[in-house]
Specification:
Helix content is about 55%, strand content about 10%. A two-stranded antiparallel sheet has the order 1-2.
Length: about 100
């Protein structure tokens, strides 16, 4: 494994520790990851993964990648305004 692959593995571990000089470290050894294929002390941080998925979902929504919903909403509003204006024109033409 490359060092970058190891860090990706460590990013979702409960034992991770951030050092501003060295970067992401193991909280148990206070060193950069040194395992080859897997870490025997690895424990997945389920809460962090859940937060990351929520952030991705919010980011996806705010970036407009769910544009079908937005398009449907805009189309509905335009049609509703058209119908209301048409009714108002008919009402005012009946009054005069």
């Amino acid at each position: 494994m490359t060092q970058e692959e190891k860090l990706q593995y460590c990013k979702v571990c409960v034992h991770k520790k951030m050092d501003f000089e060295q970067g992401l470290l193991c909280g148990l050894t206070s060193e950069k990851p040194s395992f080859d294929k897997f870490c025997r002390d690895y424990e997945r941080d389920v809460a962090l993964e859940k937060k990351q998925k929520e952030r991705e979902a919010v980011s996806q929504w705010s970036n407009g990648s769910n544009s079908k919903v937005t398009f449907k909403n805009v189309l509905f509003v335009i049609v509703a305004i058209f119908v209301i204006l048409r009714l108002l024109v008919r009402i005012f033409s009946m009054i005069q």
